[in-house]
């Protein structure tokens, strides 16, 4: 791939991994619409490494507190909420792993198309808009506390994350949608989605790394390094400014973007 293509794809990955607009859709679209070659496993690994480092670093205090509390919960000497939250996130990641292993071949063969992306972009865009309007009508005191999400609520969000294996759905979008519908505030829905992304991205990156080691030939390490750095900085900036924007205007700018993109894709496919 050219430096320009690596630059564009890395920035797209960093920006869209955590926005509710589907990173997989935006990475597939250049090949579907512009005729670019698939970015390949090596660049996929690089982009996952960059975005994973970004979210871990941004939420480093939360991650550290959960890690310490989780270890303490195993030893039986820590019953804090951070330990409970760590368990929720780990269990909520299981559906993604199961559906990913069972459905990856079918998804790769049949669902990575512009038409599927257009449909899921529109459908889940409408659902996100509905959830955001519902959340906007609640008073601050009517949002449920983060602690009251419960194991059941966490698992529902985890199941939604597994649905996001379908390109165009958006992992962050659908997890935030369910979080909002369960009564979380916009900020807490986003926070849980970001924390849930850590094992999800790590799992996907590990799988791709294994494929890279066992199935490919020579690796372009300079491309991997450049992709990782660009994805890291764009992802970190995205998380920071998204949380600021979310507090001021909610999800509607992203809902509108999804609907416009979905209609444009339908026109491209059906014209």
TrEMBL record:
Any GO CC annotation of this UniProt entry: plasma membrane
Keywords, ordered alphabetically: Antibiotic resistance, Cell membrane, Cell shape, Cell wall biogenesis/degradation, Hydrolase, Membrane, Peptidoglycan synthesis, Transmembrane, Transmembrane helix
EC numbers: 3.6.1.27
One MF annotation (Gene Ontology) recorded for this entry: undecaprenyl-diphosphatase activity
Enzyme class: hydrolase
InterPro entries named in the record: UppP (IPR003824)
KW Metal-binding (keyword) present: no
Subcellular location: Cell membrane
Main location: membrane
Catalytic activity: di-trans,octa-cis-undecaprenyl diphosphate + H2O = di-trans,octa-cis-undecaprenyl phosphate + phosphate + H(+)
Stretches that traverse the bilayer: 6-29, 41-59, 85-102, 114-131, 189-209, 221-244, 251-270
The keyword Cell membrane is annotated on this UniProt entry: yes
GO biological process: cell wall organization; peptidoglycan biosynthetic process; regulation of cell shape; response to antibiotic
Domain of life per record: Bacteria
Coiled-coil features, chain-numbered ranges: none
One Pfam family per UniProt: BacA
Membrane topology: Multi-pass membrane protein
Family recorded in the similarity comment: Belongs to the UppP family.
Record-linked PANTHER family: UNDECAPRENYL-DIPHOSPHATASE
Function statement: Catalyzes the dephosphorylation of undecaprenyl diphosphate (UPP). Confers resistance to bacitracin.
Misc remark: Bacitracin is thought to be involved in the inhibition of peptidoglycan synthesis by sequestering undecaprenyl diphosphate, thereby reducing the pool of lipid carrier available.
Protein name as it appears in the record: Undecaprenyl-diphosphatase
Organism per entry: Colwellia hornerae
Organism classification: Bacteria, Pseudomonadati, Pseudomonadota, Gammaproteobacteria, Alteromonadales
Gene for this chain: uppP
